[in-house]
Automatic annotation (TrEMBL):
Keywords: Cell projection, Cilium, Flagellum, Repeat, WD repeat. Residues 492-512 have a biased composition (Low complexity). One of its GO terms (cellular component) is motile cilium. Its main location: other. This is Cilia- and flagella-associated protein 251. It is found in: Cell projection, Cilium. It comes from the Eukaryota. Residues 491-512, 877-896 are annotated as: Disordered. PROSITE patterns: WD_REPEATS_2. PANTHER family: CILIA- AND FLAGELLA-ASSOCIATED PROTEIN 251, WD-40 REPEAT PROTEIN. Residues 878-888 have a biased composition (Basic and acidic residues). WD repeats lie at residues 520-561.
Amino acid sequence: MSAVDLNSVPDEKLGKTENLPNALDQIWSYGMTSNSFGSVHNISDSYRKVLILMEISHSYFILKGIFYASANTGIIFEHQTGKQHLLQGHCNAITATTVTSNKRWLVTADTGVNCMLIVWDTLPGLTTPVTTKKEGSSVALSTSASLNPLPIKTLFDPHPGGVLACVFTADNKYLITLGSNEPQTLSIWDWTQESDENVCTCTIQGSLQVINTLDLILVSIEINPRNEGELMTTGPDAVNFFVWSKENGIKQHIPTLNSKDFKNNELEFTYSIFLPEVDEAISGTKDGDVVVWANKSLNNLSQTLETGKRATIKCVKLHTGAINFITSVSKKYILTGGEDGFVKVYDNHLRLLLWFERLKAGPIVSISFNNNNTSPDHDLPSQENILSDLDIPEFVVSTKHGKVLKLLKQNSTGSSVAAANLIQQALIKKSLSKGNSQNGTKTGAKAGLKKNKEEFTWNKEVNNGLNSEIEHTNIGSLGILHDGMISRELANTGNNENKTTSTKTTPNSASNTPSVKVLLEVQYEKITCLSCHPKKPVFITGGHSGLIQLWNYETKKLLGSRKFEEVKKVNKSKENGAKPNKEKKASEYNDIYESLSISCLAYSDSGSIIGVGFSNGFVKILDSRTLNDYYEILSTTNAPPQPPFPYPSKHEQKLNAEASKVKSYNGQKLSEAEKKNNLIQISKNAIIFLTFDVTEEYLAAGDDGFGVSIIHREPVVGELNTQEQSHNNSLDNTNLKKKSLNTSFSLSENNTDSFKKKEDIKMQWVLYGRNQAHFQNIVALMFIPKSDPSDEPVLISVSYDRNVAEYDVKNASISGGFALKSLNRIEQTAHPLAATFHPNFNREDEKVSASVPASAKAKLVEEKNINATTLNANSITETKDAQVKNEEENLNSQKLENEEALKKNRINTENFLLISSTDYKFKVYNATTKFCRKTVLGPLYGSPLTNICMIPPETHAKYFAFSTSEKVVGITKLPLDGNPNKFMGVIAHPNEVNETPTFDGEYLLTVGDATVNQWKIQKSSIEIQLSFQAAQSVLEPYLNLVDNTNLGKESPFYKEMEDYFYYAQLRSQGENSTTKRKILDRVQLDQVPYIFQAMGFYPTKIEIENLLNEVKFSLVEKNFNGLVNSVNFEDLIKLYVNHKPAKNYTEEELFRALDDCLEPGKKKNVVFGDEVGKVKVSKENEEITRDGLSALIELYGESFTEEEFKDSFAEILKSRRKYKGLMPDVFTKKEFVEKMLFLEKY
């Protein structure tokens, strides 16, 4: 990207970096917190619909939306238009959400460090309260309004540790919150006031109310609709009631369980509500029961208890499994959602009226209705009920499986078109009546009708887009429990097998039964992998749920999904508790389907196939368009290739899935063995890396057992015809590979008859072998890019064990296995965490002449002059014309050869690795020689970078994305030089995060927990920030990293470094010399380590070697030969900042390192002080011996000899009065660090 023109930047932003746009701007979230009860809110509002219809949108857009949390972001999703509003600001995962009764104000709250609670206004343009005024028969707003959520109040640390649940009172004046601290606190807030202090608070006595079971937040608050001064909280082991007032505060009441049955059976509560028409409350349990709490005791039913005091009067079974959610509607009906996936409707006496059992969307966790089903203007239609004879409006259901469904009336179109038409007709009717009253003639009525018809023209473009996605499915069944109950059959249309008989029937037909529309479908368990298509705006995700989803990130549409499960046989007698029969019979076993966790996904370079790695060590190859198992046929006919076709619709995917069961290719049906071969077992450990080579001939896999495997694509044995097989029998394995990949090897214009008789060649993926070159986790696995298509594939792996392994892919085979080519150690103390390919230091699009070194250019000029002189001399003699011509041709030929040689010797034929490590450093290595070419300081965002990837396309201004182990993702610009202004990061997720750029480099997709966020990459932010720096000192960003005074060149650090810089010049010229000294702006390279040691940085021998080599070969980056033997002052400071440790070693780290010398003479399985795969807390008062310390230093690292050990510590201890230059035989670790080494504690 070219530099940004500062003239285009507003004046008010110049010099104000805090006003810069973020380098990453979130535009979409593919996810939902589906493990929290009651967390999805239906904010569609009939009142708001009318207001927005009449005042805001001339195309008469009707708002239909849901509000939910996605990790640390609140989402308002307008499912009608497919638009998201992102409520950002939280650093931690949102654990509590609520809305006011009019659905205007929302609340998001989180738990964790730096927790907060934010109140949002969805219609900030409206006055408060919202009012209407009558103008004739029309409805108008006093101000304009728009859906533009803005934060209007923020509470920092409302409870120690955060908020687990919150709710508004019915009048929306007070907000009640439940904290996550122990013991828990309950607080009341007057959120409309400016004060951040709560009105009252209390500490909850009794059982702890917070228990996370299966990651479900089982806690809630409910307010009594009959008395806003009474509250109820629910936790797994306790239900408590509270009464509160502003004057008297909060008083807690612990209810009693009177029945002996309740005391004998331990109840685990899930959710509770107050009943609207009776003074009772009910609590659901994990067993499917509801406990009824009344203001009377079974001991004396005639006496009413004090307000807030409750007792159990009965327990009723409502579900076969846990009851996850309970709500009420229309003051007449109670709806329950269960773990069985059913939604059941009861009356206030808990008599079953209706249930929906065919949702098949997973356990229900939330049910939410619109604000109301009546219009503020009675001339306008109210919202339709799902059934004509039940006062139950359309509602939204969410499940644990990441689905949000809307239940609506069957004969409705399910879209906003029907609602718009109803409102249109009502308003036209009003205008007609208005015209009649004003004009008294039919002409006035016709004029009014014509006018309204023009005004109420529906946006056809939006309408068509909506109808194309609406899917209706008849759901539910109704049972008959009593005479007064409605009898209805909710079977699929045309299905007469499940009809129930009853004594009472209704005229409703199956076509009038409720239907369902899927509003949202996302991943519902942790997403472990994401891969972007290399050529299309498509990405795929997979995770612990065994579900893979294919998304289009431009349209934000789900293209397809597939669920992977494994079948396990469970003995029936074992399930019933009986002893299993020794004779195994198939009838005695049940098939149990369990999700097959997906651990890795990877597209091939062409994007035609997808590699899927599972946690059980298996690998499967899929077709990227259909997500079906991939079987490849190389046709030997001369039929033209089929053109690419778009991704299939859901209906086509269903047909493909059915067809795949009997699918055949060219009349050849796939056998069960062939289908089984598509599932390849690599290891018993999870597959964590998959990568294809450019030719898609090889697939490499890295597993969690530190092994790397190679899979090869080759023909199925026996699929070639007899003539071809006899010909191939004489070929070796390598030739067979090459021949099988060339589909035209046997085709000839003169041999059409012969090839028509040949059968098509089936291809298969074959495991050649597995090699375990590492003993710790693999952090990167990649094929080195080929500079020439004929080059052999080179596979390398980078591991946490500090080693880079290169494998012999070319000679891999089933019989010969998969061998290791080389193993190189690249780090001493730090551990690699991530790696990718670094773009070549030279620009590929530069002209060859620009990259030729100056010495080579001079040689070419000299040759040119010699050639010209020779030609002129020879032209004088006419008798030597032939000789001159020959010499000229020879010289020109030699010149071309020299230029070609220069081209081949250019550095841009090298490949480089970029590796980030635990010491917050980036290091660039030659991929072939493993030679360290550069070391720079990375971003200091709390934790080291765990993932890095280049952002395509690689233009002149190259960028790459990075992420830390927690929360932060960002981008930076190449070349890396340690400048902190080149890094920009944002908090993307509350926990672990990973990132992948799209193929066009426009977006960055980040993964955290069960959420994928899409970010717009704004490279101009970094360009503007660097433009601001251009007007400042070049060294200022570097000095701020090592000096806290912010004095720049006047700081003590700068002055001290400057003194050493000039003193080093004196040392290089001889300290005792009497000759005239030359003070220059450069210092000799061999003096740099001494300057660093004088400044307090003591590099190891390898670090010194890497530092000196980096400077020596720095001209290579600029395409010039020759070595650099000196460095100027600016580069010296940059080298110091980039190479010195980013953080000082802690005392605990030193103690852990000394653990290795507790037992002298015994070699431990250690890696520079850390036990393999284990970090333990060291005891500071443990004693170590001199012999043990000596053995440790002599065996590991840059080892000392025994004499060097004695001399070094004699020099260190000679100034210590206690030791007098002698090391004691036994001493504690703390004494060694603090007394002997005299290291200060940080």
